[in-house]
Amino acid sequence: MPTRREFLTRTAAATAATYALLQPDSLRRVRAAGRNLAGESPRSLADNEGYWGQIQRAFAVDRSLINLNNGGVNPSPRMVQDAMRRHVEYSNQIPSRNLWQQQEPQVETVRARIARMFGCDAEEIAITRNASESMEISLYGLTLSPGDEVLTTTQDYPRMINTLKQREQREGIVLKTFPFPNPPQSPDELVEAFERNITPRTKAVLMSHMTTYTGQVFPVREICHAARAKGITAIVDGAHAFGHFVYDGGGIGCDFYGTSLHKWMHAPIGTGFLYVRKDRIAGHWPLMAAPEPKTNDIRKFEEIGTHPAANRLAIADALVFHEGIGPERKEARLRYLRDRFAKRLAANDRVRFFTSLDPQQSCGMATLGIEGIGAGDLRTHLWKQHKIYVTGIEFENISGIRVSPNVYTTPTEVDIFTEAIEDVLKNGIPVETKG
Ligand SMILES: Cc1ncc(COP(=O)(O)O)c(C=O)c1O
User: Fold this and answer.
1) Is the domain of 169 the same as that of 292?
2) Is 57 within a domain?
3) Which of 47, 194, 239, 311 has the highest count of CB atoms within 10 angstroms of its CB?
4) φ, ψ for residue 373, nearest 5 deg
5) Which of 74, 129, 132, 162 to mutate to test the pocket of ligand 1 (most atoms within 8 A of CB)?
6) 196 within some domain
7) Residue 6 belongs to what domain range?
8) Residue 237 beta carbon below 6 angstroms from any ligand 1 atom
């Protein structure tokens, strides 16, 4: 007969074991790996392969391929995919009840968690399907008159530029864009360029927090501050920034901030959010008509008809996974992986970097080209010959490949990519693997 003490000890151990078994495996790995390393700085942990090996195993990606286009869209860890599947199954039991009455109200907890991570009030967050939707709500919903100017860079995302071009054609607003060098000398150069191009007719400025072509980080706080001081609406496209590097969203001081959550946050594909500064909600038109378009309720931007709750609810699991790693650790690891290939290849004077490697101006992505080799050929060769997936960029003076590893990428995979580029530098691209 066990003593009372033995009984309690055994029960506690069994409960802990059961709890561990019930936790999604990937989260258990992440937490367990992190627990013993609590005292280590994010930078010193950036090349601790024992730790990152646990994170890598949280993803069920195909390791016979090397995906270095994580800037496009990210895979979700297993725990996020599992959560999504559970929610889909539950919705489908009796959708009109489970989806509308149970799951949709539950999305409010996700709103609150996103707000907490971004650094704002939950009543300032609309959950959307992606950055595009968030940005279109921002850009179409502004009240503008013919002749009013919206200022952005030529390197902002094409869909946002097209949104403004459509407003030009339809309503006679004026889209003004300016180019900037790749890379710029310093972040100040970008603030000055915005300030120089503002005119008395400028009503809004649009900027990418991190650009699509080169991953250039913009000093959004300074630009928003300069714009708002002149009464100009400040809109930030944060598609690549949220979940990638650490910043205080509320502290940026913008009026609108849109992002996807299926990029660097690892949430299910088809998720994003839009932050709208509280005092801008009532005056802003929703993209799809809401019963009260001028209400102060942020949910008016979510009036899109029947839509799944599963991917929205599973955002919470992605946030938990991200917090489990620690945003600072993740940022440090992304920088480490990027620098691992970038610093080695930058030593070759035939390799041109369109991305500054200055930590203030970039993070986990870099766009690079090889003198005398077309971006399309390089991209196709990497895929055909090595099954390495990158995206090709041809825009203005940029001709290269954008390379974006992620937390599940191993240093060996980064080295295989680096060696493949070194081989091209030495031997060129055989005709069979050209684009
Ligand atoms: C800067 C920027 N904004 C917006 C988007 C659009 O993102 P999504 O397709 O998730 O809406 C992208 C996509 O790569 C992007 O790079």
Assistant:
1) yes
2) no
3) 239
4) -125, 125
5) 132
6) yes
7) 1-36
8) yes
CA–CA dist 253, 251 (Å, integer): 5
What pLDDT score was predicted for residue 6?
Answer: 55
- Chosen domain end from 275, 292, 320: 320
What's the number of domains the chain is made of? 3
pLDDT score of 21 more than 60: no
Ligand 1 binding pocket includes 157 (Cβ within 6 Å): yes
d(CA 55, CA 182): 33
The structure's pTM equals: 0.93
Cβ of 130 below 6 Å from ligand 1: yes
CB 237 within 8 A of CB 160: yes
Decide if 119 contacts 322 (C-beta within 8 A).
no
pLDDT class of 18 with cuts at 50, 70, 90: very low
Distance (angstroms) between ligand 1 centre and the Cα of 335 equals 21
- In short, whether 207's Cβ falls inside 6 Å of ligand 1 is no
Q: Which two tokens stand for residue 10?
A: 């055994």
Q: Note whether 303 and 274 are same-domain residues.
A: yes
C-alpha 319 – ligand 1 centre gap (Å) = 20
Specify the CATH number for the domain of residue 409: 3.90.1150.10
pLDDT digit string, tens, across residues 170-195: 999 999 999 999 999 999 999 999 99
At 23, the pLDDT band (50, 70, 90 cuts) reads low
* Per-residue buried b or exposed e for 291-324, using 16+ beta carbons within 10 Å of the residue's own CB: eeeeeeebbbbbeeeeebbbbbbbbbbbbbbbbb
For 73-98, write each residue's pLDDT tens digit: 999 999 999 999 999 999 999 999 99
Kindly report the CATH number assigned to the domain that includes residue 146: 3.40.640.10
240 in ligand 1 pocket by Cβ < 6 Å? yes
Ligand 1 center to residue 189 CA distance, Å? 24
